[in-house]
Amino acid sequence: MLSASLAILETEDQRNELARFYSQSKRRLYNIAYSKLQDRAAAEDAVQETFLRIADKPKNFFGVSHDKRQSYADVIVKNVAYDMLREKINKPVENLDDYEDAAAEISAEDIVINNENAYALVEFIRAMPEGTKDALLLQSVHKESCARIAKLLNISEDAARQRLSRAKRQIKEFLERRSHE
């Protein structure tokens, strides 16, 4: 896959430099992606996507001094991983066959109501501000602590707690409104 990234570049010097950088930093970038995604294949995909993004805009990468390129790549791989997480969460459930045993005990009406409620909740969460949604995702899906969330989002722990509190309060209010309708 690196060959696809290298093929995009204009000069041989850029190709050589990016290949060298790849061999030096692929493990570090993989570890960053894995820490966010908790999935080996997804982490590998994130690293590959990172190098495609670097190769797609070589002036940004090669315009940064050598000592700052690692930080630049770290930011890209984190953003790629977060994009992948958002995409995974925003993907609707398509196949209820996985839930056959449970569905046999539930009426069709209950299934429709529950699916509508779940879809409405997902849409409500999607509409939340990015920072609030990211904090909620990191805590509920990835089981991250407030301290870790603060570090990942580059905010204070108090701000992370406030975002989580706000998100939970908004979800509670939403669910209460839905139950009264």
| SS element count, helices | 10
Low-confidence stretches: none
Q: Beta fraction of the residues? A: under 5%
Helix and strand content put the structural class at mainly alpha
Q: Can you offer a commentary on this structure?
A:
Helix 1 packs parallel to helix 3 and helix 7 runs antiparallel to helix 10. The model has no long low-confidence stretch (mean pLDDT 80). 80% of the residues lie in helices and 0% in strands. The protein has helices spanning 2-8, 12-37, 40-56, 58-62, 69-90, 100-104, 108-126, 130-140, 146-153, 157-180. It starts with a helix and ends with a helix. The relative contact order is 0.08. It has 181 residues and is mainly alpha-helical.
